[in-house]
Structures are given as C-alpha cells and as structure tokens.
Amino acid sequence: MSWFAFCRWRILGVVLCILALSHYRTLPTEGTTLLVPEVGKNVVRHFALNGTDVGTFDVVGLEEPSGLALDAQGHLYVTNFAEGEPGTGTIRRFSPTGEDLGYFATGFHGPTGLAFDPVGTLYVAVGRSDNGAIRQFSPTGEDLGNFVTGLNYPIALAFDPAGNLYVTVAFDNTIRRFAPTGEDLRVFGTTVNLPIGLTFDQAGNLYVASGLDNTVRRFAPTGEDLGTFASSGLAGPSGLAFDPAGNLYVSNAFRPTIRRFAPTGEDLGDFATDLAFPYFMVFPSHAFPAPRPLLAQLRMDTEAAALPGAQEAQLLHLLDAAQVLINQAATQFQADHTARAIWLLRQALRQAEYYREVLQHAVNRERVAAEVAAPLLATAAQVTEQLLNGIDVLQEERLATEPDMGNAALEDAKTLRRVGFIHDGQRFHYFVMPDKQSTDPVSAPIAVTRGASFDLRYITGIAVDQDIFGFVWDRTAQTVQEIRRDTCQAGLGVSRANDRGDLLVYCFVAPDFHLDAYLMQGDTLTPLQPPGAGHVSPLGINNAGWVAGIWQTALDQPSHGFIGEPRGADYQFTSYDIPGAFATQLSGINDSGEVAGNFTDGDDNSRTLGPIFKLSGVGATPEVFDPGQGYVAVSWGIANNGWIHGYVELATVNEGG
C-alpha cells in the first residue's frame, strides 16, 4: 500500500502524513539555505533565507524522505519511510557537498525522527515497529540496539543542552523525556493534541507542533505550559526549525507551505508554497566548529577511568568549564557576534590545555597509571586540535564577510596563525620569523617563555616535568632558577619580571584550575587580589613595583583589567574597562606609568576582537590602535619607550612583514 493511499483511507494515517522534524542544533551564517524534504517528490529542496528556491539537493536513493539531521561534520542523514512497510525503511547519508555516501542503516519499519546526542550517537524514532522503539547507532553505523521501547508511536526527537532526550509520542498525546542513561523522566509539560515536531529555542523553551489543533505550543524549561505560540495559517503543522534571527519555520502537511513566525509570534506569512508534503527542515550550514560531541565523550571516559578522587574532580571541572564556554560561543555566533565567539573558544581551549597538563602531571607523579591516562590524553589532544581548527574557521568566517581596512602591511599574503607586531604609536610593524630550533636553556620536556624584563636580562615562563613550575632565565649570569611552591599544589608559572628581579607568579588552584596571583620578591609572596576576583592573571610589572593584568569573577566570565599600586607591604587595586567593551585586558605597564592592553568590542554590532590600546595613566583616555577588520591583535606588554608588542592572528600577511 502506498503512502498516499494509506493517508487517504485511514484516519490515523494523519500521523504518517505529519511526521516530525529531527532537530539538530547548527549555527547558520549569512547565505544559509533551508533544507526541506518533499515526500511527494522524493527530493530535498534548498531555500535561501529570503525565500528564493535554490533548487533540489542533488541526492539519490530517497524514498519518501522524512527525518533530517546533521552530524558535527555537516553530513546530512535522511530517513526513508518507504511506505512504512516492515524492513524497508532506511537511513541514507550524504556529504556536506551532496555526495551520496550510501546507506548508513537499513531494515527499519517506518523510521521518522532523527537526532544526535552530544557524543555523536544517532537516535532514530521507529514508530511503526511493534515495540515503539528509539534505536541508537554509533558514528560508524554500528547498531547499538534500543534506547527505549514501549512508546505508543514515537515521532520526533530532540536533545536539550543537558543531553536529555525529548520524544513526541503521537498516540498518547504526550512529550516524554529520558535522561542520557535511558532513565524515564516521564511526561514533560501537558498533553498536546497529536504532538508531532519539536525543537528548542536559544532560551531553552520547547516548541511542539500540535497536529490536530493546528497550533504550535510552547513550554518553559521547567515544563510550564506557556500556551499557544502560533496558529495563523497552519494546517497539519509538522516540522519546526529556527533561523539565525530566531524566526520559527513551520511546515504544513495539509497545506503545502512553510509558514514563518517572528520571535514574538507575529505571523510573517508563507515562506514557501506549492510543496509536495514538506516535512522536516534543517539549516545545513557548517556545524558549529567546536568539538562538543568529542568533549562529551572525553567527560564520559574520564568518569569511567576510575581516577583518584581529587584528580577526577579537577579534570571534570575543567571539561565542564570548557563545555559551558563552547555553548556560550555557539550562542554568540548564532547572534552574529563572531568576535565574542572566538574569544570564548579561546577560553575553552585554555581549559582543554589545562586538562592535558593536569592529567600529565598526575601521571608524572605516579598518581595515575600511564596506560589509564593514554587514551584520555589522546582524546584531549583531538579536542585541542578541533578547538584550534574551530577558531581558524571562525576567523576565516569573519574575513570572508568583513572587508579589510586596507592596511598595506597585511596584503598579498600567506596563511599564518600568528604574526608578531610592534606598535610604535603610529603604525603596526609585523614580523614573520622562519621556523628554528629553540635555544631555551630549560631542560624540562615542555618549557614556554612568557615575558622578559625591560632590560631583557630576565626571561620568565612555565615548564612541565613531574610538576608544573615556573622558571627565570638570567641571561647575564647564564643561570636558570626553577620556581616551585608546595602551596601551589596544581603548579605555577612566572609571567613577567622587572629589572630588579621581582617576579609575577600565578598559582594554579584545584579543583577549578583558576589562577591566584602573587608578587614574588626573594622568598616573599605578596597576594595580588583585586576585589571580587575569582581568577587573576598578572601580566605586567614595572621597576617601581606597579602591576597590571586581568581578573575575572569566574573562568567563563568576561575579563576586566586591573592596575595595582604598591602601598607599603600591600597593594591598592583599580579596575579598568574600556567603556562598552565585552572584555578588557591590561597586559603591561612601563616605568612612565603607561599601560597597554586590548579589548573585545561590546557593541551589539561588534566587528572587532582585540584592538590594542595605550593609556598614559589610570584615568586617561585610551589611544586605540586597530590592525584592521578581521584581524585579532593581542598585546603582551609595553616598553619604556611606549612601544607595544604582541601578536596578531590573521589569515594573510606579507611574508616580508
């Protein structure tokens, strides 16, 4: 019996005519197209966000396509309902360019909704099966069996940020919720008259298509029924999807259109018409370039590794912090704040790098067996690499959509991640150095220099052997002093020295791995703690002992600059923020009291990340120096002649600098 015949002669066939959107959260950009399957034509169509019909997605092997989902790499997965006969349903997979990659899984009885969990496992609603099941498949296509069974016609699937699975159960008129473990969290919200598609907005509210009421219902994250969100122009609403601006798209099974509604619920009219049974919509732009599935897998593996309690708590905290930062970056990117998204991904990268350092430190101290840590370190390295790649992708995104300011020094270039600069108060001077072997005299397996005194006698940094420790290289005496403190159980580093040999020391503090800052003079440590700070990174010190740096209330919060003035044995702190900035960093202070820093523009129409600036004093108006749109400048200090130094991250720069 054909699909259409079934719909014509059987009342409950309405369920098969109004299948659900399989919602997978991607982050569309300008030029994104909406993918819509047309069951009556066995095709998937493209629509630009202005409603223009871009044409047919060039795929084969579709037979009554219903559910759509995208994995983290941008592959498209399509369920073939195939008349709903036993064993004929399939899942087909296509590359981001539309290349047919063949069958991902076969042998279903009426598969509909699809959704990926945070670690990349694919879930499939198989409503016509005898046991009303949700099936699971690994990223390689391995059948992992049933996740849950006994549902009275499951249709659509969606995951919330916590990894809980939401399922519309058509014949029970309910929304069911299941924990990542499979635990049944029972009915969510109130009854819905034939619930079909479902999706979440950025605030975590759940939207559900009510097939027989011809409405879209909305529920708060707590389950509170917020009432009808939309109803105008709906006839058999099924698929639901949000565009980057927060507009909701609703496909109509019994009126061959897609209707669009503003975030306020205002009816914006038909988005597309004359479609042959449009169903489940998805925005197929690149998936967000950050390793959320891999990160979630690393967390699960860390919990399963049976590590000592202190190490496990610290590592899990770092992974959770990275996840929060990545989610915040995703939200900023969807709101077109790409610069903020890049800044947040860099903070997530720091957490991933801290994870590797903490775990390697535990192995070196024989607190964790090397064979236990090896797979975790390997996965963590992949997370780090994916974050670096994700930052590169977003940088290219900005460069592709935002014109260069025309800075002649940055034209006709080769691709680089970082380029050094000195700003002399008039212009940027760029430096591209050839690769060369390090002449660092520190013998530890890992040693990274962080700064130098004004006279370049003292070079400071951080190193890792069995411990994480700081070092000071005295270039005049040709000696290296290792800085280790038992009070810093998770390790420490040295960020800067002045000509007197006073050191800025930062101490890693478990379990959240935040930084506590100190001025070290001989064996004396003076805390540097601006009011309200939960995380302090000292970055600059002059020969009078004045210090500058950044502080945050927590690692996932924006940074503020600070200046510390010595008052006897203590310090008086002044916070500094560029007016309207999202985040401010003070990176150095010279003997004239001039301060250097950089900031992230806080304007809602932000286009910049990291213009550098100079202050002639605490209360002075900042002089801002910007290398040009699309380029990220980060200052690392200021010399006594007022010149600022640091690095620029960009896609192109003259090889000659």
Could you walk me through the main structural features you see in this protein, from its secondary elements to its overall organization?
With 657 residues, the chain is an alpha+beta fold. The chain folds into three domains: 3-272, Neuraminidase (6 Propeller), CATH 2.120.10; 304-401; 408-649, 6 Propeller (Neuraminidase). It is built from six helices and 43 strands. The strands form eleven sheets. Strands 4-5-6-7 form a four-stranded antiparallel beta sheet, with no helix packed on it. α3 runs antiparallel to α4, α4 runs antiparallel to α5 and α5 runs antiparallel to α6. The chain is elongated, with a radius of gyration of 28 Å. The model is unreliable at 1-31, 400-417, 433-439, 603-608 and 651-657 (pLDDT under 50).
Q: What portion of residues belong to β-strands?
A: 35-45%
Overall mean pLDDT = 78
Poorly predicted ranges? 1-31, 400-417, 433-439, 603-608, 651-657
- Assign the CATH topology of the largest domain: Neuraminidase
By CATH reckoning, the class of the largest domain would read Mainly Beta
The major pleated sheet works out as: 4 strands, antiparallel
Total strands: the figure is: 43
- CA radius of gyration is 28 Å
Q: CATH H level of the largest domain: which superfamily?
A: TolB, C-terminal domain
| Total number of distinct structural domains | 3
Annotated CATH architecture of the largest domain: 6 Propeller
Provide a concise account of the structure shown.
This protein has 657 residues and is α+β, with helices and mostly antiparallel strands. The chain contains six helices and 43 strands.
